[in-house]
Each structure stands twice: as C-alpha cells, then as structure tokens.
Amino acid sequence: MNKYVERLYNGIIKENPTFVLMLGMCPTLAVTSSAINGLGMGLSTTVVLVLSNLLISAFRKIIPDGVRMPAFIVIVASLVTIVEFLMKAYLQSLSAALGVYIPLIVVNCIILGRAESYASKNPVLPSIFDGIGMGLGFTLGLTCIGLVREILGAGQIFGVQVLSLSWFTPITIFVMAPGAFLVLAFLVAGMNIIRRKMEEKGKPLAEPAGCLSGDCSNCAHSSVCADKKEVTD
C-alpha cells in the first residue's frame, strides 16, 4: 500500500480517533446533538491538525527537545485562534453552536498526540497525510454520531425534517447528554463486531499491535504473529 494512502487508511479505519482510540471524547459527546455540529467540529479540528502537523514536521529539527511540548502548544494555539476568528466572521451560527469547544481544540489529545508521535519524527508530506487521515476519521465519527442523534431526537438530517411529526415522536433523550453516551456505545460496539468478523475471515482491519496476554496458543492473532516472525527471520 502506498505510504500516503496508508496514512489515510490508518486515520479513518485502522486507528479511528473516535471508534478505535477513543480520543477527543469531550467534543465528541458535547457537540454532536446534530450532524452539522459534528461535521463543523470535525472539519475545524482537521484544518488545525493538518496545518499543525505540517509546521511541526517542518520545524522538527529546529525545536529543542526541552521546549518541545510548549512549542507544539504555541503552534496549535495560533492555528486555533485563526480558525476561531474565521468561523466567527463567516460561520457565526456554527461558531455560536460549538462555543467554547473551538478554543479547546488547543488541548485536544488527538492533535498533540499526532504532533508528538508522528509529525515530530517524520517528513512534511507524510505528516500532512497523517493529519488528513486522522482528521477525516474524527470528522466521520462526529458526523455519524450527530446523524443518529439528530434522526432519533428530532427526525431531521442536517436540519431538514425527514420524518413527519404526524407519525414520528422524537426521542428527546438522544439530543440530550445521555443520548451521546448511548449512541457512542452502540456505534463502538458495531465497529467492534465488524472488526471481529473481519478477523475471523482472515482480513483484519488492523494488525495486532503486540502481545497482551503472553498466551500464544489461545491468542486470536497467533497465526498473524507467526507469519510476521517468519518474514522477520
């Protein structure tokens, strides 16, 4: 697989921030009462993620190790400030809906995590694709949660009424805080079922990261590990 395509696949499927790594749960649970909010939050985070990966990768040999994290935060905070000002100028309703969660992108563990684990150790172009992949994965997760909550809680999709209120009674809990936990739990469970079925077919969505139990005889990934060991040897 092409390394750039691999970075996209990694962020969207293999290490999806929402459904696999379970990162960025604050905005995931707080702003996904509608699909447009989830999409807006995801794309805002994607822009910051891509640009921060680009800058951190470009300056990785210049930034001293002793001030690495403060430098990353300064770069991310500057980008978030620009995004926030642009949203207030051109997307006022969305900016008001997302509220404080736009400035909080600065401390989003997805952005700082990719800066530390990937962008600071790799060239610019792969880092950009890594940011795009993780950002699209985050956007996909938030939008899916928002869609489910909006349909069940209001009978709408992106603000358009698709289920007639003459026969559909909105389940208002889904646009409230508990609904976010319920929808996230069901979507993560569905993702786990898909991953397990793919593994049973011998086509895992992700290779095992390493041995967790030490019991190779009862490990579902023992054959994969053996194959990798033979290649290494």
Helix content: 55-70%
Count of runs of 4 or more consecutive helical residues: 9
Question: Average pLDDT across residues?
Answer: 84
Total beta-strand segments:
2
Order of helices and strands: HHHHHHHEEHH
The class by helix and strand makeup works out as mainly alpha
Low-confidence stretches: 208-233
* General shape: globular
Rg, Å, rounded = 20 Å
* Major sheet size, sense and barrel closure: 2 strands, antiparallel
N- to C-terminal distance: 22 Å
Estimated share of beta-strand residues? under 5%
Order of the strands making up the biggest sheet: 1-2
Describe the structure.
The chain has 233 residues and is mainly alpha-helical. It is built from nine helices and two strands; from the N terminus they run αααααααββαα. It has helices at 3-14, 25-30, 35-58, 68-90, 92-98, 109-117, 124-154, 177-200, 222-232, and strands at residues 156-157, 160-161. The protein has a two-stranded antiparallel ribbon. A hairpin with a 2-residue loop joins strand 1 (156-157) and strand 2 (160-161). Helix 1 (3-14) runs parallel beside helix 7.
